[in-house]
Each structure stands twice: as structure tokens, then as C-alpha cells.
Amino acid sequence: MNTPVPFPIGTPGQPWGAAEVAQWRAMHPVRRRHAEDVLPRVEALRSRFEVSEYGMLDYAPDRYPLHAVGSRGWDENLPVALVTGGVHGYETSGVHGALQFLERHAPQYAGRINLLVVPCVSPWAYERIQRWNPAAIDPNRSFRKPSPAAESAALMRLVAPLAGRFLLHIDLHETTDSDEGEFRPALAARDGKPFEPGTIPDGFYLVDDSDNPQPAFQRAIINAVEKVTHIAPADPDGTIIGSPVISRGVIEYALRPLGLCAGITGARYTTTTEVYPDSPRASPAQCNDAQVAAVCAALDFALSQPGASARSA
Q1: Is 116 exposed, middle or buried (0-12, 13-18, 19+ CB in 10 A)?
Q2: How many domains does the chain have?
Q3: Fewest beta carbons less than 10 Å away: which of 87, 90, 100, 121?
Q4: Cα–Cα distance between 119 and 102 in angstroms, integer?
Q5: Which CATH number covers residue 65?
Q6: Which domain holds residue 143?
Q7: Does residue 130 form part of some domain?
């Protein structure tokens, strides 16, 4: 039996304080640039979409503008679809998949639904290839009021005026080998809890909302994505990341009680994608393509349902 190696920050069994958070933050320098990778592609979309700055993250000495890309010719009589990426900044295909969808596929939905796309919710974490923000807070457990994460609070302010109009929200994520090797051990250390090893699913899967399950919607996405990349099988105990598999490649979480991004709109159709970029069977381009396939399949399914073309009540 292997004995877990203690996390290099903090004292086992004791939650972190400010000193440990500062030590953790100092361990993670900039490894890529939001201003080089993301912002130029957002700016290039201005000729075809409405690009707005919905907030600014002030993490001295750095400041990060937060951008949303919306349909040009917004129609108040149509429902809204929200696409979010980069809630966890290290999950690269969420960011680049959202941008690729805008660049190549979004125009085909003009006049059918209002699109609102936020490609990179957490640019500080994107630059450092990290899960948390600088305060060692997970934005994807912070979509609640009051939110402890500035990234989450800003996105909630953006969508609040559109309450009741969302037909769809798809939140683009990855599950990586670093989840087990770095991020889950860090979480246990931060909270002063023992680290309990888990498994990383080999393939793509979805997280449905246990309070509003939409099995046909999830199946439609899985069927589209399996043309691009492989679907994660269940572990021998019938679970994926410890949650029971409801149908092939689908598990459920209680989105809103957990403070997850996919729960913020109250949309009829919600899902969280999980791409596996560390598979020898998946390239970065394939991961981006899988995210795009998921977005398009989600939109196509939602728009095919009775009453979907009208504004939600």
C-alpha cells in the first residue's frame, strides 16, 4: 500500500491560512498569456459579433479584462444560450473550444437564438494553468451569493438581467491527470483533510443537473461527440469520478447547491462537458473539436424542441 506524499504547503490536518495561500500563489508563475492567446481572437470577432467587457479582475500587479461575445442583431423575442469556458483556467480546450465555436459555427445560429459566449471566465488561472484564483478559491464552487470568487461574481452579474430567458447553458471543462496528481491533493491540504486517491476517466463525459435531469439532451451530445473522441467508460463500480453513471458517459451533480457554473441560469437545458486531454488517443485539436461538437449538438437539440424558438417565460 502506497503512503500518500504530504502536500508541500501547510500542516497536515490544519486548513490553510493567509500565509499558506501566499506560499501556494508564489509557486505558480505565469506560463502563458491571456493577452496573447485569447484577447486577439476575441478582438477579431468584433466585426461579426457584439463584444463587451463585463468586468475587470484586479490582481495586482496584473489586471484582466473579462469579455463576453454576443449575437449581433440581438432579438428580444428569442431565447438565449450561454456558453462558458475557462471557469477552471487550466482546462485549455474549454477556452479554445468556445473561441473555435464562435469563429467557425456560431453564425449558423443567427436569427434562431441569441448567443452569449464567455470564452475565459478565469484568466489569472488560465495564465498559470491552475484551477483556483489567486486566493486559492475554486470559481466552480463559488457561483452563489455572496460569491467568494470575483470571477464567479462577475459572471453572475452579467447573466442576471437575462434571468428567465435562458434556454440552454453549456459549460466547457476538462478532467486531466493533474486533477489527481496536483489539484485534489492541493484541495485536501487547503482544507486540512486527508487526501483520498481517486481515478481519472479515460474519455469524454457530461455532468447533468440532478435537480433538472435532461437525459435525451445529454444523449444527443454524447452521440455527437463520440464521432470526434471516445466516451469515458464507467469504472468497475459503475461510477465516473465517484458518481453513479446515469447513462453512457453521463453523471449528475446538484448544480446550484454545489455552486457550479452550469447552475447559474436556470435554463431548461444545462450540461458540463468534461474532455480528457491527457489520453494518447486525443490531440489538443481533437479536444477543441469535441467541445465544439458538444456546443453544436446542445444547440441543435434545444432548438428542435417544441416552443424553443420563442422567448422563455
Answers
A1: buried
A2: 1
A3: 100
A4: 9
A5: 3.40.630.10
A6: 33-175+203-304
A7: yes
